[in-house]
Amino acid sequence: MKIVVCVKQVPDTNDVKIDPKTGTLIRDGVPSIINPDDKNAIEEALVLKKEKGAVVTVLCMGPPQADFALREALGMGADEAILLSDRAFAGADTWATSYALSMAIKKVGDYDLIFCGRQAIDGDTAQVGPELAEIMDIPQVTYVRKIVSIDNKTAVVERAMEDGYEVIEVKMPAVLTAVKELNVPRYPTASGIVDAFDVKEVKLWTAADIQADPERLGLKGSYTQVKRTFAPPVKGAGKMLEGSVKEKALSLVQELKVKHVW
Amino acid sequence: MSVLIKKDACIACGACIGSCPFGAIEMDSVAVINDKCTGCGACIESCPVEAIYRTDEEEVIEEVSLDDYKGVWVFAEQRGGKVMNIAFELLGEGRKLADSLGVELSAVLIGDKMEACTKELIAYGSDNVYLVEDPELKDYRTDSYTSAMADLVNQYKPEIVLIGATNIGRDFGPRLAARVKTGLTADCTELSIDLETRLLMQTRPAFGGNIMATILCPNSRPQMSTVRPGVMKKADPDASKAGKIISSKFNSNAASIRTLVKEIVKEAGRVVNLEEAQIIVSGGRGLGNADGFKLIGEVAGKLGGIVGASRGAVDSGWISNSHQVGQTGKTVHPKLYIACGISGAIQHVAGMQKSGLIVAINKNPGAPIFQVADYGIVGDLYQVLPALMEALGEKNGENIAC
């Protein structure tokens, strides 16, 4: 069984702060991490490596610095790492990203399973998994919280829903997207880290290496365009509610209704 | 579109560096744009000498006659034969978009034996309901629904399609967008029409709500957006409104269905999911004891929300740490956050300051929590919360899930 795990390197948004004077992001000192849901995908692939002898390839599209994310994945135990990096990929929306990933996966070849995280914490779109599956013309199951059984022909998985879950049988090869309930990602071991930096290699593939159509890459190949970005509206000063306890409670409910939060 | 710097005009002041949300500008002898640039243009206004500009060359990906596409569509998600609330919310928003464009609003209802639900969709604003019924379509499956909907889109050519950002919509939306070869913008919080270009302006938060982006889909159709439940408002239903029902057959042979739903399981009392909660009522050390969380739980239940806690309350052993909000707990962004008996230490505020609306209830008028609150009530929570329960009256929480 051959598994390709798609990962993204993201800024740790929990550490992102807004400069109150300029209203822009303060990025200094914000660490880059492997997107959390993607780590669950890596972990599950590594479980299948142990149980089924799967070979795990980790694929990341990003700037040269994303090499570090792939080293971490190698340190966790992945067999192979590929960095898809080229100026031509810059500014890609989810569609152009999915296209580039699909071409890279075709080059990897002979895959049985493609694993992605459900969504990345910088964009929160959850679109690359399904778009990748569509471009590759294979089935998808998103929000996978458990793999019940899996072989080269079919997988049975639990798909998380808002109020429970669905048990879904899917034909392989397929794209699965992982949610955090799936597992607890392992840490790289000390020897794993040494291997990741000194022994194993991260392959660097460019747009030419994956024979991608330049018209379909990056900003040029994107259907959506960012027109503008801006800081969220700044909150005004709070309002203290006055009166008796009952009056305060009533005016609060009134305000909640006016603001449509309840 | 791409953003460029006029090298001879740049004075290397560095003002643009801080304005870039993506860290895409570096300073050499003059400012230089690196690979991270998405062409958003946030830097343009920051430049005091107008050295940054945008090229607007047309980049048509595929020849599509955009004018052939007319009308606004809403995907009316159903589960178990019942149309979800999100569909009515989207119709409320879709009506506004259709009216500003001067076009019709339609709902798309896919399922089995769903015809009875079409009336409701019309009452909530649809001019038309596209209905696709088949036993194979009873439950949502990626392949069957994508195939059914893509056929409709290709045949009737809507200019806008709105889909709920539920666990189903977020599986379906991107698959459909890729099938019909168009763009999709996820989790929009604001939608409007640019009357000059007739383009849909899709505004959404990114970077965990730290920044807002307005996104366009200029060269392909339909323009597709997903919207989370609870973001848009339903219109008042009008039972007398007339509408047309357009039935289509499902071509199951073309769908190549590769998944099988073996079981649909409902779980009561799902794990505490603070990160995705829309309403959170939190208790702190001011509760005085573990029993206080019973009252917090009642208020949360009434509002259709869930219970959070400060580190103080967790450290006191009154509630498990799965409820903890703050730097060492969870970062939350519900639309309503009610802090009860929480003083507002920085570490707590860090985890909840991005909430849509913050209400603070505290005995101490000097508590720092009031500085981040939109509404403050000074008082004993054991008096205020029962009064609040009473004021909330009959209405039960209907904001849970979708």
Q: Could you walk me through the main structural features you see in this protein, from its secondary elements to its overall organization?
A:
The complex is a heterodimer of chains A (262) and B (402). By secondary structure, chain A is of the alpha/beta class. Chain A has a single domain, classed as Rossmann fold. Helices cover 29% and strands 29% of the residues of chain A. In chain A, the strands form three sheets. In chain A, strands 11-10-9-12-8-1-6-7-13 form a nine-stranded mixed β-sheet, sandwiched between helices. A two-stranded antiparallel ribbon of chain A has the order 2-5. In chain A, helix 2 packs across helix 5 and helix 3 (94-108) crosses helix 4. Chain A is globular and about 70 Å long. Chain B is an alpha/beta fold and 402 residues long. Chain B is built from eleven helices and 22 strands. In chain B, the strands form six sheets. A seven-stranded parallel β-sheet of chain B has the order 11-15-10-5-8-9-16, sandwiched between helices. In chain B, helix 3 links the parallel strand 8 (105-111) and strand 9. In chain B, helix 4 (142-156) packs across helix 5. Chain B is globular and about 65 Å long. In chain B, 51% of the residues are buried. Residues 57-62 and 396-402 of chain B have low confidence and may be disordered. Classes of the chains: A alpha/beta (262), B alpha/beta (402).
Task: List the SSEs and their pairings.
The complex is a heterodimer of chains A (262) and B (402).
Chain A: E1 2-7, E2 9-11, E3 17-18, E4 25-26, E5 32-34, H1 36-52, E6 55-61, H2 67-76, E7 80-84, H3 94-108, E8 113-117, H4 128-136, E9 140-150, E10 154-161, E11 164-171, E12 174-178, H5 190-199, E13 202-205, E14 225-230, E15 239-240, H6 245-258
Parallel strand pairs in A: 1-6, 1-8, 6-7, 7-13, 8-12, 9-12
Antiparallel strand pairs in A: 2-5, 3-4, 9-10, 10-11
Helix pairs in contact in A: 2-5, 3-4
Chain B: E1 2-5, H1 15-19, E2 25-27, E3 31-33, E4 52-55, E5 72-75, E6 78-79, E7 82-83, H2 85-101, E8 105-111, H3 118-123, E9 128-133, H4 142-156, E10 160-164, H5 169-180, E11 184-185, E12 190-194, E13 199-206, E14 211-216, E15 223-227, E16 244-248, H6 252-255, E17 259-266, E18 279-283, H7 292-303, E19 306-309, H8 311-315, E20 336-340, H9 346-352, E21 357-362, H10 369-372, E22 375-378, H11 381-392
Parallel strand pairs in B: 5-8, 5-10, 8-9, 9-16, 10-15, 11-15, 18-19, 18-20, 20-21, 21-22
Antiparallel strand pairs in B: 1-4, 2-3, 6-7, 12-13, 13-14
Helix pairs in contact in B: 4-5, 7-11
